[in-house]
Amino acid sequence: MKGFDVVIIGGGLSGSATALHLSKKGYSVLIIEREKFQEYKPCAGGMASSMQRFLPLDIEDSIESKIKNVEFRWKASDNVVADLTGESPFWIVKREKLDQLLLNESLRNGSQIIRPVLVEEITKKNDKWEIICNNKTKYISEFLVIADGSQSKWAGYFKLGPRKPKFAKTISLRLKGLGGIPQDAVRFEFGFIKYGFAWAFPLKESLNIGLGTFINNGSLENQPLNNEVIKSFGFDDFHYQTVNKKLRIWNGIHPINVDKVLVVGDAASLCDPFLAEGIRPSLMSSFYAAECIDLFLSGEIDDLNLYSQKINDNWGKSMAWGRRIAQVFYRFPRTGYQLGVKRKTAPKRIAQILSGEMSYEDIAKRVIRRLLTKSET
Ligand SMILES: Cc1cc2nc3c(=O)[nH]c(=O)nc-3n(C[C@H](O)[C@H](O)[C@H](O)COP(=O)(O)OP(=O)(O)OC[C@H]3O[C@@H](n4cnc5c(N)ncnc54)[C@H](O)[C@@H]3O)c2cc1C
Fold first, then answer.
1. How far apart are CA 167 and CA 190, in angstroms?
2. Residue-wise pLDDT tens digits, 66-98
3. Of 91, 219, 307, 362, which shows the fewest CB atoms inside 10 Å?
4. Interatomic CA distance for residues 7 and 32, integer angstroms
5. Best of 96, 213, 279, 315 for a ligand 1 pocket test (most atoms within 8 Å of beta carbon)
């Protein structure tokens, strides 16, 4: 039997980032991870550089591209380019490297990890969590952080996040070479994928390609169409292996903490329902989770409700608008593309969303203000 301040279930991005913050503050942390090792992470790796502020270490080693332009296309034509002004505000990281970087640093600070291990039972005794794993060991912990990703088993067990989670379907692959995508640009391809889009994000020597469908349970099982999309990124002759993943997306404001338990990242259903941005809310939720546990252990707060409140204020309010935008945009994609991409100021706005300068809420407020001023004149 071993005792810890915090046990974290899941050692992906959110789990490792939470462990890093907590171990830096001097707490004892155990990560329980299901997989032995993950060679390939199905994630395109696009993140706003401003998110560095949620990390206590420099992540330069994991950055493979610094993005200057965002390209939008409708069925492989109609090239619209948004210039990302400012000092490389959008980065492409290799997720395997980023996760490892955070994990290694947290281990250096004293965190421990056990893998491959599965949690079998969690119970509360004497105000502490008892966690029994399939390695037949029992771990005792003051706090529990659930970071087991989109297929989370434990968020539902503690009734955290939406009762009925919503999922985007995704297919991802990595091809050698960059095809026709410049090293400093990302491409969003609309019109091919029903209820969604495709994307191409460049690493140093390969391209992360993804296809996603966000509403109406759309299908991605059309191989000839998928090949056409991949060709549109500038590849003629290609062999590829795909990973299918259901990505748990934001679906309303719900409690994401309960008695000494917090849920972070995808397990908390924080992923952007319009553009599948999940790195930002993972880093944000890990940061606030560690901060709230620290405040609790320092005696400054006596419950963790501040955590749910911070995430809802800093992320949920924007996602409520992101979900509305997704529902309209993907239902009427041609009109959505005309209004959302072809409008003179639209590409700049999307670039500002990606770089974290603006939220969906800011954009929605502007549109409403514009409509109000128009109706008054
Ligand atoms: C195709 C695709 C492309 C994407 N592209 C982007 C992008 O460009 N930019 C962006 O911001 N976001 C992107 N995302 C979203 C982003 O990848 C996720 O939001 C992010 O990985 C969430 O991190 P996480 O740590 O919460 O979950 P994960 O990274 O999934 O980690 C969960 C961890 O928990 C472990 N685990 C699972 N179950 C258990 C269990 N029962 N016990 C113990 N361990 C368990 C898993 O093995 C894993 O290590 C993309 C997602 C997909 C699917």
1. 20
2. 999 999 999 999 889 988 877 668 999 999 999
3. 219
4. 7
5. 279
